[in-house]
Amino acid sequence: MYQRMTGPTYPLRGKINIEGRDIKYRLARSHGGDTNHAVSLSFPDSTYKAALRYTFFKANRPWETMPMKWENGQFTAELPNQPPAGKLEYYILISRQEQKYAIPPDRTVVIRFKGAVPALALIPHVVFMFFAMLISNLSALEAFAKGKQLKIYTILTTSLLFAGGIIFGPIVQRYAFGELWTGIPFGYDLTDNKTLVAMIGWLIALVQVTRRDFRQARWWVVAAAVILLLIYSIPHSMLGSELDYQTMQVRTGQ
Predict the structure, then answer these.
(1) Where are the chain's structural domains?
(2) Where does 2-114 sit in CATH, by number?
């Protein structure tokens, strides 16, 4: 739930009062595939006009204005599809006579486009990363309880993290943004780098559990579990890939 409510790629939600009506909005900040992105806003009154205003993110280009069509209680329009890692900055402008309302009222929305990721790559990535977190926490509890299954849980956590983050993670990124790895030493992508830190932490814990006395090794497992917990608390896709519209090259760590 925390990950779904944070980070730069999850929808921006809110509401605005327009002449006594509370208008709720949900505006996407990520789009996958080669189609245009449909922007819609539920609005009960067809006497208003709406326009979708957008520009290319960090490209120093003028704003484009696209009239939105009202039908069945909704205003709709489409943002043009962008190359992988391309970003558009947009908002909705509602107007009637001299009254104008920006949605969102205090900011613009930045949406990042990406390639379509096949389910055969995405589902294993999500499943492995979820269970890596689950068994990591279980390993820490086992270490505190001085349980006999610590070595098995450590092996499981390390294996799941390797499969989800080091194997399927780059595969997902290749489909989405055209690059397998954009962390150290090739870039500053935070998702890749935090995966690398977590992997190193659990490899050290695995070595310690295999070679050292249990009473000493278990604290390495606790440390690795804490590191992974801290890493998972960082919102997903922070400092991710971004297309530079001046050079048309994908930059990382933006």
Answers:
(1) 2-114, 119-251
(2) 2.60.40.10
| Alpha helices in the chain, H assignment, sequence order | 2-5, 119-144, 150-161, 169-177, 190-211, 214-232
pLDDT of residue 5: 74
In terms of phi and psi (left: phi > 0; alpha: psi -120 to 50; beta: otherwise), the region of 199 is alpha
Please tell me the pTM assigned to this model.
0.84
The pLDDT value given to residue 254: 56
Read off the tokens for 226.
């804490």
CATH number at 119-251: 1.20.120
Packed helices 150-161 and 214-232: angle between N→C axes, nearest 10 degrees: 30
Identify whether the C-beta of residue 67 lies closer than 8 Å to the C-beta of residue 222: no
Nearest to 77 by CA among 54, 56, 100: 54
Q: Which pLDDT score, from 0 to 100, does residue 107 have?
A: 93
